[in-house]
Structures are given as C-alpha cells and as structure tokens.
C-alpha cells in the first residue's frame, strides 16, 4: 500500500466521484490480518490503496469472494470497522476512519457563517464534519473522537451518546458536571454515578465539560451511530497537603455567590481537634463569619445570627441537633460525609426557613464496582463505614456506624461535679443509590443518633435525631431535568428523674417535620441556566409532657397541646451570564406559612403587656383549621464583576423569613432546648442582609485573598423575660419578647494552596446587637437600647497551618482567639421589706475573659505502595497545648452573705490523643 494521506489534502485532489469498477474479483482470505487482505486486493487489481496502517491493527479476516464487484468486497471487509473507502476516477482507493470522503464541498463551506456542527434536518448537503478553527484558538486541548462510521443514507437524524465522567486522579465518578453543545444550545449534567446521555445530530458536535473543581475540556465528537464515550477530567486545584478546603482554583473569584465555602471531608483529617476526632463542622468555625458561643457549644453563630437561624441539612433532610457529647463532637459520622457547602451570604432561593445560613451536607455515594471501607479507633470513639456494590455499576449501599466509650473523659475533667457522671452516644447512617436507566435514578438515606448522659445521680437525660431522605432524579431531555425529594426529620429528648422522695417523673419533648419538594433545572441557552421548584413542609411539635413514674409519686401529669404548621414555597433562580465580566444570579422565593389547629389561642388586651391578667378572649380552632397566616416574597440577588483575570468584585442582597424559633435562656444549644412554631401571638422572624466583597488570587492561584463586609437587619427576634419559665408552659407568649436585631462585620481570609507550608488565616470583626423595646417596663430590656447579644464577639481570629516534612510525615497547628462573650454581673445588693436582694447590671454589659487555644498534631501516613490491602493513617495530637483555662460560663453564688463569682471550664488542661485510621 502507498501509505497515509492527509484527508483535507485529498478533498482538494478529488473533485469528482470515482466510477464504480465493473470488473469482478475472487479472493479466499483465511484468518489473515485486514492489512494482508488489503495488500492482496491491491496486488490483484489495478488500484492503489491509501490507509493509515494503525487503523488496521488487531483485525482478522476469514472471507471468500467469487466473481464479486470490488466495491462490494471492500464494503464487506470494512463492514464491522469504523473505516470507509472512496474510489477515485484514477483508480485510487482512499480509506478513511469514521467519515466518508465527499467529491465536493458543501455549498455553505465558504459562506458567511462558519459551520462548527450541523443537523442533517436543516441542510441538504448532509452532515458536516469540518472542524472549526475556533476550537484550536482556545487554550484547551481538543481531542477528536469518532463513533460509528458514516453511511450514504440514514433512517434517523440523531444518535445517542452515553458514558461516564470520572476523576483522572482516583477514577471516582464526577457528579453534577455539565456537558454542553453550545452551537446547538443543548446540554446535560451527570448523575450521582457520573453518568450522562446526550442525543446528538449526525456529524460533528463540540462537547464542553464544566464543573467547579475540574479543568474544562473540549472534545470533537463525530458520531454516525449510537455509542459510548467515557471522559476523564483533571482536577484544577492544588491540594493543601491534606489541609486545604477543597474548591475550584478560581471559584472564589469566578462564581457570583458571596459568603460561600465548600469543605471536603477528606481534607479535614489533618486538622488537630479535641480527642483526635474529625469534625467538619468544627473546621467550619475556623472560617470567617462562623463562630460558637464557647467551647463545647453545640450551635453555630453565623454573621451575628442565633443558633436556631442555621438550616443544617443532611441529604436534604433537617438535622435539629448536630452534636454529641455536650457539643464536643459532631453528630454525623465524618467517614460517611462527602462535603459540606456553607452559604452565609447569598443563600440560593431553593433554601428557606432560616435567616442566617445553610449547611448543606452531602453523604458519600457508595461505590458500585468494588467493596470499600474505612475504620478508625480513637480514645473516645470508634468509627466504621463500608461501601457495598449491590448491582455492579448500577447500585450500591453505604453503611456507617459510630459509638463512644467516653465516661473516662468526664472523670478526667477539672469540674468535680462531673467526675461521677456518665455519657455515651452512637449514630448509624446508610445510603443506597440505584441507577434505573440512563434517565432515571433513585437514592435513599437514613440516619439515627442517640445520646444519653447523667450529670447527677438522680437524672438521666437522653436526646435523639432521626431522619430519612428519598430522592428521585429524572432527565427529560438535554435541557430539562428534575428531582422529587421526600424527607422526614425528628428530634426529641427525655428526662428520667429518680429522686430520693416521691417526686420521680418522666418528661418528654418531640418535633417532627415532613417535606415534599420538586426541583427542576432548565438549561435555556448559553446565557441562562434556570432552577425552579415548589416545596411544602408539615411541622408537628409536642411542646412537652410530664408524668409521674409510679403510683406513689406526687408529680401531677401535664401535657401541652400539640402544635402544627404548614410551610410552603415556590422559587426560581436564573444564573444569567451577561458578558464575560458580569454574572448575575437572580432568585425569587415566595414563602407562606399557616399555623394549624386543633388549638386554643389566647387574645390579649390591646395596649397592655401579655400576662394572665390581660387575657380578654380564648379562640378555639378545629383540626387543620388555619389559625394565622404569614409570608411574603424573598429576594435573592447576587452579582460578580471581573476587575481582572484573577480579581473580582461581588455583591448580594437577601431577605428571609423564619417561622420556627428555639426557646432557651442559656447561651448555647442544649439538649432540652425546645422549638416553637409561629402562631397567633408569636410572629415569624425576618432578616435583610447586604454583602460586598473583593476577591483576588495571586501567583497562579497559589494564594487566595478575600475581604467581605456584611450588614444585616432583623426583626421579631425571640428572646426571654428575666426569670422566664420556658419549659412546660401553656402560655409561652407571656414569657418571651420579640425585638429587633442588627449585625455587621468585616471578614478577611487568606489561604496558601501549595508548597510544604500551607493553610489559611481568617479574621472577623463583627458586632451582633439586640433591641427589646416596649411601652411597658416589664417588656423592655436595658431601657429599650441596643445591647450585645449573648454571642457578640467582636474579634475572631483563626490560623490553620500544615507543614509537610515528607509525603508521609507532617505537622499541623490550629490557633484560635476570640473576644470573651457578654455576661450579666451582679453589681450590688439592696434591702427591701427586711429581705436582701442582688442588684444586677444591664443585660450583657460585661464580658468573660477572652478565649484562645493552640492545638498541635503529628500526622503519619502509611507507605504509598501501589499494591497493598489498605492505607493507614495515624494522628497524634494535643488539644489546648497551652493548658489555657478558658471560661465556658460564669455564675454567682451567695456564700455567708457574700456574692462570689465562679467560673466553669470544659478543658482546662492539655488533652493528648492518638487515633488510628485504616482505609481499604
């Protein structure tokens, strides 16, 4: 054979079709290579054959032909290959791969519009296979893939392309990656298993992949039959040597959201935390704008918001108490978690019901091809997670469990009252994924956690979380996809009191919610990506009940009537790319809430404070009858403008409603905090937040810097009267106050993404203020002036560093500093009617001592042999290296007529730990 020729050159050589050779030939090919068969054809005919020899490798031929036309022989030899042939007028046979040679160019080839991809339904010249110069002008490497081979005629005009997209580094499927054919205005996204399907026109289509955290790719797909193609994509961020917050290398400057951070579970393993336990939610508190009321606090205060203003989701279902062991550990198994998306600025319109933030937590997708697992053993807990393929490549199951053996920790604490205490917890988690077909998939998640502890010898406290989530995904076509989501969540606690006299009792509380949500995605065109849907959530709250344990106990039974409420919403968001510099995310959510019967609601006299003496009427509502309706529009708008290639400006505005509140007169979330629905007398909380920030990357994305400011105004915030009784109170509205709040601050963040030394530094200056004003003195606090909230901490500084000595050995440090939180102190005493009383300062006028802590950890990776049963990891850490006696709270006692202040601390000494982890 004569060798290879460039196809484009051939197009200019042959301007007319070759005539069919009418001579017949006979051949007998017995298990010879295709290359040898073609050589015999060339030797026995007057034709010269031109072909790339590598196209023929590995193909064997066993054929017999008797008096057969040359064209029929070639058609049969190449029938099961992707090779076509062309016979020219001068007896040359040109063999091409995938496409056919045309004797003339299409009429539109030299026209005004350059053809990148064509649809045979819209042109008489057949499918287009001419590559655009625009692709080669980009910096993206373009690969050409051929599927099937071109025929002379077709019974269909489009073919199905399917396959998977996987991470080139670890071969893991990449979910939610977009594939777009810009010239046709069509596209799709991968499912949880990285699978995709597209219907493409005959000929050339240019496919682009795009997703946060991965390099964009561009691929020329020349398709002439149904087929498959698997993409392999590269990550485009540099790891922070096991400490980095995983994200797209330029997402901090590229997307439109303000105050958004994504934390990967695997990257948290080197950060030294208490007792060596991994904790993504504790890692979040090292970021600007996220803090806690104190060591051991179970909630989060985000941008000056209360702990009940955070929506914490696990696979779309709400987690009401995300903590174990007095807030020291998170309630979610870290090995079962994939990542956490934290929204504290521009909250997407699909989320609602909370004012301050959303913690969107996703569990791992179980592997569908091989059995995997991870176990760990620490000083307090033991963890295990396994991933089990059920149907290979289609479905898998993840199971996780964790338990504690923590009584020894309580006995080692400095607080004498805790030495004889006990505490334990466990949690279990499961997730099942099933790919029904290329357009349909279903996933189900379940979670249960239980805590039990006894601080005193006569009381046993217990609380639990339970949730279930079911999600069905369906792709209608390349532009439309949707999800149907059903979730149920429950939180409850109980107190078992067993005293020395006949006052033993059982006390319980419970809240349930069930939500149904439909979420749709529509890729309108290159500029508009629309997300819309509708949701409905039904609340059921048992405010509490108490009953005697035995027939001899003198406790009177009491049960507070059940509360019910329905919260619904419709939402739509358009991600609108105006030009290369300006991106807008425009969202609108309309929320409405109805308090439902059966219920009895009290009506109070206008112009008087709410109390038992000002009740003028009682309203009775039947089951499912509307008691009171609230709601309104919520605007969610954010924008990004590029000031340079690696420098952007972002701004956002959000207004939000919250129809559920916590009742607590402590500074932290405790297991016996109760949730209260808005009703006839208690209004929903509302907030408006503005944010503005600048974002800059340096040294090829090695360094990331951001400076973001926010201002938030709130109203109808729920607080309590001095000495309020919040538990088992049938007229709770007489014990609480609703007032205004404002918060503002400036957040600075710098992160180093590469090198042996890496990590981040975060600093926040912020204020959180509350105003409880009324015309009635008993409903007014601090004379109606703004005063610091319980979690107002102006200065918050955190530094996380990791130094990599070798690939196996590294050292990590974690340093935190926070302004002490506000507290109310006694400032004197007075005598009235023969009795002595304590005089207290204005609420939250003083502060406890500032908080600071240094942690150090040594990380030892197992060897990195390619063939081994599993990978081990040791973490040796010391929590609170400096032995700082950080105050958790300050309280006052009377001793011989003298008021004395006492300080309570959680960890007042260094706490060493060693944890072993094995992954297989």
Which key terms come to mind for this protein?
disordered N terminus, 920 residues, Phage tail protein beta-alpha-beta fold, single chain, 22-stranded antiparallel barrel, Maltoporin, Chain A, 57 strands, Protocatechuate 3,4-Dioxygenase, subunit A, 7 helices, five-stranded mixed β-sheet, mainly beta
How would you summarize the topology of this molecule?
Layout: H1 7-13, E1 24-33, H2 34-44, E2 48-50, E3 60-69, H3 70-77, E4 83-87, E5 92-97, H4 133-137, E6 142-147, E7 158-167, E8 178-181, E9 186-189, E10 195-201, E11 203-210, E12 217-223, E13 227-228, E14 231-233, H5 251-254, E15 260-264, H6 280-284, E16 290-291, E17 301-302, E18 310-314, E19 317-318, E20 323-324, E21 329-330, E22 337-343, E23 357-363, E24 372-377, E25 381-391, E26 395-404, H7 407-412, E27 422-437, E28 440-454, E29 459-475, E30 480-497, E31 505-523, E32 528-548, E33 558-559, E34 563-577, E35 582-596, E36 599-604, E37 615-621, E38 626-644, E39 647-658, E40 660-663, E41 674-677, E42 685-698, E43 703-720, E44 736-752, E45 757-771, E46 786-788, E47 795-804, E48 809-818, E49 822-823, E50 826-832, E51 835-840, E52 846-847, E53 851-861, E54 871-879, E55 889-895, E56 898-904, E57 911-919
Parallel strand pairs: 2-5, 6-12, 7-13, 7-14, 18-23
Antiparallel strand pairs: 1-3, 4-5, 7-10, 8-9, 8-11, 11-12, 15-22, 16-17, 18-19, 20-21, 22-23, 24-25, 24-57, 25-26, 26-27, 27-28, 28-29, 29-30, 30-31, 31-32, 32-33, 32-34, 34-35, 35-38, 36-37, 38-39, 39-42, 40-41, 42-43, 43-44, 44-45, 45-46, 45-47, 47-48, 48-53, 49-52, 50-51, 53-54, 54-57, 55-56
């Amino acid at each position: 054979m004569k060798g290879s020729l460039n196809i484009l050159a051939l197009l200019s050589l042959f301007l007319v079709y070759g005539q069919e050779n009418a001579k017949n030939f006979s051949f007998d090919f017995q298990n010879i290579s295709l290359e040898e068969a073609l050589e015999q054809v060339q030797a026995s005919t007057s034709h010269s054959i031109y072909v790339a020899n590598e196209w023929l490798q590995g193909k064997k031929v066993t054929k017999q032909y008797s008096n057969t036309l040359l064209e029929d022989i070639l058609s049969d030899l190449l029938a099961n290959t992707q090779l076509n042939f062309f016979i020219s007028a001068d007896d040359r046979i040109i063999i091409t791969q995938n496409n056919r040679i045309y004797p003339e160019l299409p009429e539109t080839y030299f026209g005004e519009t350059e053809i990148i991809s064509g649809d045979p339904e819209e042109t008489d010249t057949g499918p287009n296979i001419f590559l655009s110069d625009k692709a080669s002008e980009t910096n993206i490497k373009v690969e050409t893939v051929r599927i099937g081979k071109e025929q002379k005629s077709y019974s269909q005009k489009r073919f199905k392309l399917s396959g998977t997209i996987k991470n080139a580094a670890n071969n893991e499927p990449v979910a939610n990656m977009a594939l777009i054919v810009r010239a046709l205005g069509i596209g799709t996204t991968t499912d949880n298993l990285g699978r995709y399907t597209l219907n493409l026109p005959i000929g050339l289509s240019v496919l682009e992949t795009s997703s946060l955290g991965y390099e964009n790719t561009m691929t020329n797909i020349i398709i002439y039959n149904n087929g498959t193609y698997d993409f392999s994509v590269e990550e485009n961020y540099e790891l922070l040597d096991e400490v980095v917050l995983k994200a797209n290398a330029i997402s901090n400057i590229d997307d439109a959201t303000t105050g958004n951070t994504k934390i990967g579970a695997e990257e948290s393993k080197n950060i030294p935390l208490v007792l060596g336990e991994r904790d993504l939610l504790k890692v979040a508190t090292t970021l600007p704008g996220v803090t806690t009321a104190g060591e051991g606090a179970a909630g989060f205060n985000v941008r000056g918001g209360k702990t009940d203003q955070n929506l914490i989701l696990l696979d779309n279902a709400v987690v009401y108490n995300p903590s174990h062991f007095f807030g020291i550990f998170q309630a979610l198994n870290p090995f079962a978690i994939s990542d956490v998306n934290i929204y504290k600025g521009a909250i997407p319109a699909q989320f609602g019901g909370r004012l301050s933030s959303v913690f969107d937590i996703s569990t791992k997708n179980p592997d569908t091809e091989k059995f995997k697992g991870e176990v760990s053993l620490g000083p307090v807990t033991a963890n295990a997670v396994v991933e089990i393929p059920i149907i290979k490549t289609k479905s898998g199951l993840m199971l996780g469990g964790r338990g504690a053996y923590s009584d020894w920790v309580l006995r080692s604490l400095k607080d004498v009252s805790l030495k004889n205490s006990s505490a334990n917890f466990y949690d279990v988690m499961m997730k099942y994924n099933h790919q029904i077909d290329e357009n349909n998939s279903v996933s189900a998640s379940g979670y249960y956690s239980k805590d039990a502890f006894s601080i005193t010898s006569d009381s046993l406290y217990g609380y639990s979380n339970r949730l279930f989530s079911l999600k069905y995904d369906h792709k209608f076509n390349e532009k439309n996809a949707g999800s149907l989501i059903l979730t149920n969540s429950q939180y409850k606690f109980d107190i078992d009191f067993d005293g020395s006299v006949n006052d033993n009792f059982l006390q319980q509380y419970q809240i349930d919610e069930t939500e149904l949500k439909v979420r749709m995605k529509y890729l309108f065109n290159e500029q508009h990506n629309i997300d819309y849907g509708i949701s409905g959530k039904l609340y059921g709250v048992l405010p509490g009940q108490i009953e005697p344990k035995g027939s001899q106990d003198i406790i009177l039974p009491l049960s507070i009537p059940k509360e019910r409420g329905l919260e619904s919403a419709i939402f739509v968001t358009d991600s609108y790319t105006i030009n290369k510099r300006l991106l807008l995310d425009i969202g609108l959510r309309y929320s409405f809430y109805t308090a439902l019967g059966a219920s009895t609601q009290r009506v109070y006299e206008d112009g008087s404070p709410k109390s038992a003496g000002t009740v003028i009427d009682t309203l009775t509502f039947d089951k499912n009858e509307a008691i009171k309706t609230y709601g309104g529009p919520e605007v969610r708008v954010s924008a990004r403008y590029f000031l340079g290639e690696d420098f952007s400006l972002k701004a956002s505005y959000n207004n939000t409603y919250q129809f559920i509140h916590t009742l607590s007169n402590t500074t932290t979330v405790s297991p016996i905090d109760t949730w209260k629905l808005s009703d006839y007398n208690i209004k929903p909380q509302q907030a408006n937040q503005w944010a503005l920030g600048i974002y800059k990357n340096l040294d090829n994305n090695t360094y990331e810097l951001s400076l973001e400011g926010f201002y938030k105004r709130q109203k109808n915030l729920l607080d309590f009267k001095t000495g309020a009784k919040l538990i088992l109170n049938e007229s709770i509205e007489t014990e609480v106050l609703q007032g205004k709040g404002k918060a503002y601050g400036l957040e600075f963040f710098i992160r180093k993404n590469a090198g042996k030394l890496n990590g981040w530094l975060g600093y926040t200056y912020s204020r959180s203020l509350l105003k409880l004003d009324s015309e009635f003195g008993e409903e007014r606090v601090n004379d109606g002036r703004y005063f610091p909230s319980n979690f107002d901490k102006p200065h918050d500084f955190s530094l996380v560093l990791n130094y990599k000595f070798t690939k196996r050995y590294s050292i990590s440090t974690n340093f935190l500093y926070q302004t002490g939180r506000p507290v109310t102190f006694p400032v004197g005493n007075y005598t009235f009617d023969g009795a002595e009383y304590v005089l207290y300062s204005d609420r939250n006028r003083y502060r406890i001592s500032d908080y600071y802590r240094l942690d150090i950890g040594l990380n030892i990776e197992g060897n990195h042999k390619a063939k081994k049963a599993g990978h081990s990891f040791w973490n040796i850490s010391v929590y609170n290296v400096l032995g700082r006696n950080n105050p958790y709270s300050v309280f006052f006692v009377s001793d011989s007529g003298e008021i004395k202040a006492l300080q309570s601390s959680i960890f007042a000494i260094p706490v060493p730990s060693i944890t072993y982890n094995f992954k297989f």
